[in-house]
Known about the structure:
Blueprint: E1 2-9, E2 29-32, E3 35-38, E4 59-66, H1 71-81, E5 114-115, E6 140-141, E7 159-164, H2 167-170, H3 174-179, E8 183-187, H4 197-208, E9 212-218, H5 224-237, E10 243-248, E11 254-259
Parallel strand pairs: 7-8, 7-9, 9-10
Antiparallel strand pairs: 1-4, 2-3, 5-6, 10-11
Helix pairs in contact: 4-5
Amino acid sequence: MAVRKIVEIDEERCNGCGLCVPSCAEGAIQIVDGKARLVKDLYCDGLGACLGDCPLGAITIVEREAEAFDEQAVGAHLARLGRAPQHAPSHATPAPAPLPHAHGGGGCPGAAMRQFGPKTAAGETPASRPATDAPSALRQWPVQLHLVSPFAPYFQGADLLLAADCAAFAHGGFHARFLAGKALAIACPKLDNPQGYVEKLAAMITEAGITSITIVMMQVPCCRGLEHFVEQAMQIAGARIPVRRAIVGVEGDILLEEEL
């Protein structure tokens, strides 16, 4: 055996949600006794495609002695699982270095964390620009609650905006009114699989120390799920932080803004 990069799973952090399982193209991770586990070293290529799907940051890439990655063994393993190979990478050439992750690894490029500032010209403020050319107030990527890491630097001590997926499309002033100066997570209680959402929000409170949460929801009953996620997260975290709620009508008007 040689020292190489390989996945490591922190069983204390893992809640067994299983979101990492489908993202591992080689089937190296399975849920065993309620926890995600690396079933065999030789199935893991060490590239870390699973990192971005762990809501609690329980998966990292480490270097240790491990059996060499074996593509033929992976093929046989996937056949036993009834899964078709998702790709056939060449492991003779090292993969490009992944974008930084809060816990030192990489993952799906679409889930890679990025942090950036407001898009304004020198001497210009967002308010001074024409409405037709309004800059984005977004300061991070990713934004979907399944994909964000509660340990990301932009959540540290931040005000969190938890928004329904539809809200930014419905309300024309979403960026200026709600998003400016906040870290963002979006979710749809009706269409998403919310498994892991509450634990992730609780980790933002306890680990990232977010200072407040603004919930922007649509005027539909299912959006109330966002409030329930936040309330349950505060119960798990054993802490209460200021929470504000805004309700956007289906025609884009603001129906309500209040402190909870």
